[in-house]
Design a protein that fits this description.
alpha+beta; six-stranded antiparallel beta barrel; 29% helix
């Protein structure tokens, strides 16, 4: 439209009957008029050429902005994992195999030939005193052991990034909420506890991330969104756990007990269960976490008073 406006403002060089003096003007006057027209046409042509020559630059700039935004989002997730993963632990349930050559359970625990892995799971560091939160069903064999042969070994990282392992003792559990608290000796190591968030303000559609050890693969990150709120899932004692968070972030065997975090790295839930296609063992993508507000109410009681925990809120 700007180009058209320029063309409309070009004066016509053709003389009219109402102005005979114009028709009898000198050749120099005609040349000036013709020159003016040519200049206007050239200006319009240059303007159009310049406009279209810059047009391809707009999609290129938009593509660059999208690429920059993608890289920023990617770097944010990488930083999120790097900052949170040191607070996530790998849990092994072990059964000591009786050996006639040794009577020391501790020595057999450190000897892989004399132990059998009963299962694996995840957990996260609750505080700097060595308390670790996980699911009850991850350590149920240890909690109900009467033979004295069940053990639990935790693999973790200290605040300086040094990996180490410790035998853990169970100090409290609540099957009704599928929660348990372990304790490890942290002498010589400083731990990095998770940052606790709240499940009160969670919204469907917001991003979330699960960190754990599915199928024994340590430090695994899966991403997704909050798919639903206020779900009910069964607990190990047969009662319903209310208010569970539904997510499509992959949660598989071994993820249980690990943290579900938001985009700020704050724990909003404890990864607990997944629906599997009957007869296949394959996850359906419908996964659940215990809301962190429930965990915050329960865990301090377990640390102070032990187990079993029977009071309801």
């Amino acid at each position: 439209m700007v180009v058209l406006g320029c063309l409309q403002s070009i004066p016509s060089p053709i003389p009219t009957k109402e102005s005979p003096s114009s028709s009898s003007s000198s050749p120099s006057s005609w040349s000036r008029s013709l020159g003016t027209r040519r200049e206007a046409i050239m200006f319009g042509t240059c303007f159009v050429s310049s406009f279209f020559s810059f047009t391809p630059a707009f999609p290129s700039a938009i593509a660059q902005q999208e690429q920059d935004q993608f890289q920023q989002d990617e770097e944010r997730v990488v930083h999120l994992f790097q900052d949170t993963s040191p607070s996530v632990v790998f849990i092994k349930d072990l059964e000591i195999v009786k050996s006639p050559t040794s009577s020391s359970n501790e020595s057999m625990l450190n000897d892989n030939e004399n132990t059998k892995v009963e299962g694996t799971g995840s957990g996260f560091i609750w505080d700097k005193f060595g308390h670790i939160v996980t699911n009850y069903h991850v350590v149920a064999k240890l909690a109900t052991d009467t033979s004295g042969l069940q053990r639990c070994k935790v693999y973790l990282v200290d605040a300086k990034g040094n990996s180490f392992s410790r035998e853990a003792k169970i100090i409290g559990y609540d099957p009704a909420y599928d929660l348990a608290v372990l304790k490890v000796d942290i002498e010589g190591n400083e731990l990095k506890p998770v940052v606790l968030g709240t499940s009160r303000d969670i919204r469907v559609g917001q991003s979330c991330f699960a960190i754990g050890n599915p199928y024994g693969y340590e430090n695994t990150l899966t991403t997704g969104v909050v798919s639903g709120l206020g779900r009910e899932i069964p607990s190990p004692n047969g009662k319903a756990i209310r208010g569970a968070i539904q997510t499509d972030a992959a949660i598989n065997s071994g993820n249980s007990g690990g943290p579900l975090i938001n985009s700020y790295g704050h724990v909003i839930g404890v990864n607990t269960a997944t629906f599997t296609r009957k007869g296949t063992g394959v996850s359906s993508g419908v996964n659940f976490a215990i809301p962190i507000d429930t965990v915050v109410r329960t865990v301090p009681y377990l640390i102070v008073y032990g187990t079993p925990y029977s009071n309801r809120y």
